[in-house]
Amino acid sequence: MTEHGHLPADEFIWLEDIHGPEPLQWVHRQNARTEARLVDEDFLRLEEDILAVLDSEDRIPSVTKRGGYYYNFWRDRRNPRGLWRRTSWAGYLADDPEWEVLLDVDALAADEGIDWVFAGAGFLRPADGTSYRKALLRLSPDGGDAVRIREFDVEARGFVPGGFDIPAAKSRCSWLDEDSLLLGTDYGPGSLTGSSYPRTSRVLRRGAALANAEPYFEIPGEHMLAQAVHDPTPGFERDVAVDVIDFFNARTYLRRGGDWLPIDVPTDVEVGLHRQWLTLRPQTDWRPAEDTFPAGSLLAIGLDDFLAGSRDLAVLFRPDASTSLQSWSWTADYLLLNLLQDVSSRILVLDPAAGWAAGELDDCPPLHAVEAYAVDEEDGNDYWLVATGFLTPSTLSRGTIGGPATEVKQSPSFFDAAAYSVEQHFAVSADGTKVPYFQVGPKDMEYDVGNPTLLAGYGGFEVSRTPAYSGVTGRAWLQRTDEAGSGGVYVLANIRGGGEYGPGWHRAALQADRHRAYEDFAAVARDLISRGVTSRERLGCSGGSNGGLLVGNMLTGYPDLFGAVSCGVPLLDMARYTQLSAGSSWIAEYGDPADPQQWEFIRTFSPYHLLEAGAHYPDTLIWTATSDDRVGPVQARKMAARMLELGVENVWFHEALEGGHAGASDNRQAARLQALSHAFLWRALTD
């Protein structure tokens, strides 16, 4: 038995020794078995075709503006680990920009003998607001979430001698000033939460040892994460700390007079601070005074007014049955709201100086995803506009609020989109809820139940799945045909648990109601079959992380609906997930198996425990990464091992040795992973 007597015994717990010699021997045997089945000449051609998409030099180089420069991180065939680089605005507008390379990660990896993966940079805001020079670079030694933080000088194009250098950990770090950091990291015993994240934030002075960092902010160990940051905005300088209790509850504090002053709102109200404004987004209906604000609203009030006791909140957005707020972004004088209306984009522009008067951007075609966000909130009212669709390569435009946006860059086409169409349909779930899904397939498709169809979804953590162009999906699935000439169909399901319709859509599938997400996905599968798009034998599904738990439940709960399942970096053992990697941070989503009452509903969606001897399961590929320090590889290992032990011969397992939760540290690894999943599904559904 496990340490909790009500939980079932686990004969494969030995596979939880991630780097143990016996588990790794098992991994190598399974990798060899899977590769012997899948890797042939057709597979290698597919892998190279996918790699050509990922390495394309015509991709849009996404940039972040700091001062007078535009910074970009770039990987291609010549630079698999990547280049961190910058250019001017004039340079960026050129068809072939001239980039100043700041850091060659491949060269760094070769020099230091560590396979570094670039994970981002955080600049010190200079006093003049323009001459950005110092940055904290985040480098992962294996592609996992744990990163080493090193101080970098962009003018000298090198690491600062004797500068800040924080050992690899799941750290949270912010510049306090040029010689001090607000740092949450692994300071030793008692400094991490049960979720493996920092439970303290301390002040680290230049030249001081980690052990001498000064205590600043601390949370209980059973909470998820502590973080303190310094807001350097001129005229609004302040320190802010957040006690992240769980994924959906947090308490925000301001530093006032040597103490931490809490922002007095319920913990499920999302708090935002921008100059003089306080924004609030409740995740459940909230009645702070006389008015009730529905979940998913966005509210605003002057920070000083709120702290003085006022609750006269301006309503910036109020959701309805079809429309939700996805994100927002401040320019110097305006607020941009990115909305979804039945999973198609709308964008509003709000003017606080005019009583939050709202106008709408007209650059949102139906069945597309469009996002607007500030170029530099401290430097005018320019905004980026990124538009994409299943058949529309991404475009990047730039505009100034009040004027039109001008196209700056466009991604290339990787397949003939003219041969395909996009449709939106609604399936009816078990409780009568209408569940939207997108269908992408040939315009001349026969509705003869013969089309190889890939159904994807996620359904968790209020994450929305929206239309997006994918050259990989186009080449690896849509443009392929079987011997009968039937082309691939791709379907994206917008099931509950996600955020497509706001917090209510997410909360409808939390914990004891988790089954609704799976019922929604199954309803989409049945709708595809009943409409003649495909058949059970020709329908496959894929998902990763929480999406891996989703398709794991399709495998065990709805095997009659699918011919094949691709299950990536998954949660599957819901009895022990809280004890593995960062698992305890997701209790708010799934529940706590240590509680016998909660285990009663959790066990109903724990695929590892739902496997049955003698059951007929669809062909299954389970894939993961040794270096995944978020979900970890062991749940995937144990699921495959138990299926094999039960005599399920049509299960295949593959574990990348590095790459973290993404399963890939460079484009070559990503291409191998994508090829494994697509080749497996295509073969299983068409042979």
Automatic annotation (TrEMBL):
InterPro entries tied to this protein: AB_hydrolase_fold, Pept_S9A_N, Peptidase_S9_cat, Peptidase_S9A, Prolyl_oligopep/macrocyclase
Residue ranges constituting the Peptidase S9A N-terminal domain according to the UniProt record: 3-208
Residues of the Peptidase S9 prolyl oligopeptidase catalytic domain: 485-685
Pfam families xrefs: Peptidase_S9, Peptidase_S9_N
Keywords associated with the record: Hydrolase, Protease, Serine protease
Record protein name field: Prolyl oligopeptidase
